């Protein structure tokens, strides 16, 4: 069997795809449990003022303005016998795993109730968490378009990844409630720590499987670091790309929705839908991601026929419609129905994200001659932090205007209920409409995308001939 044929077998290997997908499982478990729990934990359990929490996330976002693109640029310029990405993943894996415990071990765990002490711990720990998460996430994500280089390989491998991502979302949303009966009750503070131990062990196991059987870097790209532009020049090239600008613009608003839903669902479920058991709330949100498995099959067929750009527009329009009932429903049954159909939009966003970014990176390789996955994912991660700022600006605005700056479950008013409806419904609808406009302006589509793919095949053939 010649080298090319052997490489194809590896790309389409089920074992390899499953092992590779373990990185996504670890990635999503850590970050989505962070998004799902961190606001509720520090607002309702630690009892930090919502304005201080918003300031904390603002500082965190400023840190990410340095952290995300810097780590991405450094990764692209790395050259070791293990490759560019793998050393970063190895260094970050264990610290990231232990962050899952430390996130839920603030000073109040040791009887220190001073708000400022807990606030400072909150800022420091989410910054450290983000450092190791970004180091792991950017590099494992950057491997995807390199390891699975053609459309067929990407589609097959991405199906495995999305399945694992759904599993990760279920773990991140449901498993915490198996440890913590009520996410908003202070007496369950130690239970958060127990979940952290579970997540720590899980991440280490998944990371080891990925490194041993899933992580493979291609030989034809091992010398790309020699021609890699400097960090500042690399950032400028990303921002100058029209495809990058419109994709990242839309992604900000999509991630606003991805962040707002799990952040607010514990409070929305408890006070708007009247659900007292946190497990039911988590299952309701998880149902959206579980149903996404069904809807991914639909969007897979659609994207083959009409391409990623048009599929984004249609799927985000459907997602917008499923958000409208959140403004009106008031019981658990309707909540389950609405969140099931919400999976249609989540499915498209999950499935199309990496495929679309891979196309933008392919276009960039034609322009620069080198693959700069980590630079693009790093810059994308930077801009995605704007969605976090927007989320907490919205939450702070609503909570302060309704008189709920400090968590007080006994003082929930009709105005607070209305504010929760706005955060879950109206704000998300507006965000998706803005995202649709961004995809309407996104240029990498149709004949242009086809030309990029054809030119890329020739470029890769030239690189292989030099090995």
How would you summarize what this structure contains?
This protein is mainly α. Helices cover 80% and strands 0% of the residues.
What does this structure look like?
It is a single chain. The protein has 467 residues and is mainly α. The chain has one domain: MFS general substrate transporter like domains (Growth Hormone, Chain: A), CATH 1.20.1250.20. The protein contains 15 helices and no strands. It has helices at 3-11, 14-45, 50-76, 86-102, 115-147, 151-179, 189-214, 231-240, 242-271, 278-306, 308-323, 332-368, 373-401, 414-441, 446-465. α10 (278-306) runs antiparallel to α11 (308-323). The chain is globular and about 70 Å long. The two termini are 18 Å apart.
List the helices and strands and how they pair.
Layout: H1 3-11, H2 14-45, H3 50-76, H4 86-102, H5 115-147, H6 151-179, H7 189-214, H8 231-240, H9 242-271, H10 278-306, H11 308-323, H12 332-368, H13 373-401, H14 414-441, H15 446-465
Helix and strand string, N-terminal first? HHHHHHHHHHHHHHH
* Average pLDDT, all residues: 89
The total of beta strands comes to 0
Distance between the termini: 18 Å
Low-confidence stretches: 1-11
Give the CATH H-level superfamily: MFS general substrate transporter like domains
How large, in whole angstroms, is the Cα Rg? 22 Å
Number of contiguous helices: 15
Q: Give the class from helix and strand content and strand pairing.
A: mainly alpha
Supply the CATH architecture: Up-down Bundle
């Amino acid at each position: 069997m010649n080298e090319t044929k052997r490489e194809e077998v590896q790309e389409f290997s089920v074992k390899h795809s499953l092992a590779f997908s373990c990185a996504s499982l670890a990635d999503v478990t850590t970050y989505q449990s962070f998004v799902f729990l961190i606001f509720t934990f520090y607002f309702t359990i630690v009892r930090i003022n919502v304005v201080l929490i918003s300031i904390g996330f603002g500082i965190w976002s400023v840190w990410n303005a340095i952290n995300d693109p810097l780590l991405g640029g450094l990764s692209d310029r790395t050259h070791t016998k293990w490759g560019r990405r793998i050393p970063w993943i190895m260094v970050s894996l264990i610290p990231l795993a232990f962050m899952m415990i430390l996130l839920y071990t603030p000073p109040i765990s040791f009887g220190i109730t001073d708000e400022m002490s807990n606030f400072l711990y909150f800022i420091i720990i989410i910054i450290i968490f983000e450092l190791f998460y970004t180091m792991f996430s950017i590099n494992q994500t950057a491997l995807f378009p390199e390891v699975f280089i053609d459309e067929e390989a990407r589609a097959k491998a991405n199906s495995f990844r999305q399945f694992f991502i759904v599993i990760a979302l279920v773990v991140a949303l449901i498993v915490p409630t198996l440890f913590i009966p009520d996410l908003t009750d202070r007496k369950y503070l130690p239970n958060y720590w127990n979940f952290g131990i579970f997540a720590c062990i899980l991440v280490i196991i998944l990371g080891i499987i990925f490194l041993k059987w899933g992580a493979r870097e291609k030989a034809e790209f091992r010398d790309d670091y020699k021609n890699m532009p400097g960090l500042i020049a690399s950032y400028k090239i990303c921002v100058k790309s029209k495809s990058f600008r419109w994709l990242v613009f839309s992604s900000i608003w999509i991630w606003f929705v991805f962040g707002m839903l799990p952040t607010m669902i514990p409070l929305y479920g408890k006070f708007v839908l009247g659900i007292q058991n946190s497990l039911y709330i988590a299952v309701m949100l998880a149902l959206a991601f579980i149903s996404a498995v069904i809807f991914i099959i639909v969007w897979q067929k659609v994207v083959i026929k009409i391409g990623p750009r048009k599929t984004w527009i249609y799927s985000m329009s459907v997602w917008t419609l499923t958000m409208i009932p959140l403004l009106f429903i008031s019981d658990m049954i309707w909540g389950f129905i609405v969140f099931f159909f919400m999976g249609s939009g989540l499915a498209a966003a999950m499935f199309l994200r990496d495929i679309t970014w891979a196309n933008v990176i392919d276009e960039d390789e034609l322009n620069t001659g080198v693959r700069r996955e980590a630079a693009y994912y790093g810059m994308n991660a930077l801009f995605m932090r704007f969605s976090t700022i927007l989320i907490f600006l919205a939450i702070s605005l609503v909570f302060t205007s309704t008189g709920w700056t400090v968590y007080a479950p006994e003082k929930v008013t009709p105005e607070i209920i209305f504010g929760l409806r706005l955060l879950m419904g109206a704000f998300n609808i507006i965000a998706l409409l803005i995202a649709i406009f961004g995809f309407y302006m996104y240029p990498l589509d149709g004949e242009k995308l086809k030309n990029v793919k054809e030119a890329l095949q020739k470029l890769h053939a030239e690189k292989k001939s030099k090995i």
